[in-house]
Specification:
With 373 residues, this protein is an alpha/beta fold. Helices cover 34% and strands 19% of the residues. It binds pyridoxal-5'-phosphate.
Length: 373
């Protein structure tokens, strides 16, 4: 049997990792400014994280959600305090797409309505409702396309209000900062307006913080930069530093009904051990603060160049937009300078480094970038 060929692969085989470094199977060292696509929050193979998972595996690795799991309760209490939503409830699942799927479903149950407003250049995942709310027709099958979704331009409050006037909107889903669509930071005033429009029309405001959350932008959630609260917040990626885990936070307005949400693997012991270790490390090593400080330093160090159009983003969620395709620059960074970077569209290098990145690491990247340009 061969693999179903859906990924374009770089010819690199990571074999070992530590902090912001990866070594391939030939012993070549790389600097990781991609974080495995925003997943590595507390750094590769952080000793406390590794120990927590090993210890948990020795105790109990899995049982179902039909019994009490104190680790889930501990995570809910700790996360509520850490992110500033202590009165919300936590539902645990396994991935970003699943979190968005559950959020959309809850908005629809709650309001009894069946339309979602989403934004152009959005990405919310590849499952049924999440991909329907994703602005990329190439990955939406005819089956997915039957969902009722209205797309508006980011920052266009008038278009959102017009859609809400139809009276059938269950919720509005928006990324804290658009990631795959090109590191687009929504205007603060627009986000405040969106919050009040959702209140006026009784729609649920869903903040997709799968990529922009968990400290990456220098706030626990990116939407906290705009001074608003969401009704549902969706999470994934960095929550357990690579052990598959996702979750949604629901405001007290949502009443749980037995059986409406559920999952076999969500909230399992290993994911919880990983997620609790991540919170410990984020707090003890002040990684949200580090993401902001090092991210701002990095942003300010990107050299001026006729090839570079704009540098956008917050903290360690940064996009360098070029006036030309970046495939060649990225390839040189990887194979000549041994630095992993991400991409958004054809012209943007997207940086999603582990939150433990240091200023020295960013100097290494900036020097390499200058040499490659
Ligand atoms: C903003 C956002 N939402 C949802 C997802 C989907 O997450 P997953 O791949 O874990 O399903 C992603 C993944 O890149 C994302 O960036």
């Amino acid at each position: 049997m061969k693999l179903f060929d859906v990924y374009s692969l770089f010819d690199v085989t990571p074999a070992k990792s530590k902090g912001c470094r990866i070594w391939d199977d030939k012993g070549q060292e790389y600097l990781d400014l991609y974080g495995g696509h925003a997943v590595i929050s507390v750094g590769h193979c952080h000793p406390r994280y590794v120990q927590a998972l090993k210890d948990q595996l020795d105790r109990i690795g899995f049982y179902s959600n039909s019994v009490r799991n104190p680790l889930q309760e501990e995570l809910a209490a700790r996360l509520g305090k850490a992110c500033g939503y202590p009165d919300y409830s936590l539902f645990l699942d396994n991935s970003g797409a699943e979190s968005n799927e559950n959020a959309i479903k809850m908005a629809s149950f709650h309001t009894g309505k069946d339309r979602i407003i989403a934004f152009r250049k959005s990405f919310h995942g590849r499952t049924s409702g999440a991909v329907a709310a994703t602005d990329n027709p190439a990955i939406v099958s005819p089956f997915n396309a039957n969902h009722k979704v209205t797309f508006c331009d980011l920052n266009d409050a008038a278009a959102v209000e017009q859609a809400l006037r139809g009276g059938d909107v269950a919720g509005v889903i928006i990324e804290g900062i658009q990631g795959c669509g090109g590191i687009n930071v929504p205007d603060e005033n627009f986000m405040k307006h969106l919050r009040s429009l959702c209140d006026t029309y009784g729609a649920v405001l869903i903040l997709d913080e799968v990529q922009s959350g968990y400290g990456r932008t220098g706030r626990f959630f990116a939407h906290q930069w705009y001074g608003i609260k969401a009704d549902i917040i969706t999470m994934g990626k960095g929550i357990a530093n690579g052990f598959p885990c996702g979750g949604i936070l629901l405001s007290p307005a949502f009443n749980p009904v037995k059986g409406r949400l559920g999952t076999t693997f969500g909230g399992n012991y290993l994911a919880m051990a990983g997620a609790l270790a991540v919170l410990d490390i984020i707090e003890d090593e002040k990684l949200v603060e580090n993401a902001l400080e090092v991210g701002e330093y990095l942003k300010a160090s990107i050299p001026a160049s006729p090839l570079i159009k704009e540098v956008r983003g917050k903290g360690l969620m940064l996009g360098i937009e070029f006036n030309c395709p970046v495939a060649d620059i990225r390839r040189k960074l990887l194979f000549e300078k041994h630095i992993f970077t991400g991409v958004a569209g054809s012209n943007m290098i997207r940086l999603l480094a582990p939150l433990v990145l240091t200023k020295e690491d960013t100097d290494t990247f900036v020097k390499a970038l200058k040499e490659v340009l």
